[in-house]
Amino acid sequence: MTAVRQGAAGRRNRRGGALCALAAGLALLCGCQSTAPAQTPSDGGSVTPAATAPGAGGTPSAANAPGPMARSVPSRLRIPSIGVDTPVMALGLASDGQVQVPPIAKDAPAGWYDGSPTPGQLGPSVLLGHVTVGAYGDGVFLHLDRMRAGETIAVTRADGSVATFSVDRVQTVAKSRFPTSSVYGNVDHPELRLITCGGTRISGGGGYPDNVIVYASLVSGA
Question: Residue 61 has what pLDDT?
Answer without folding.
Answer: 54
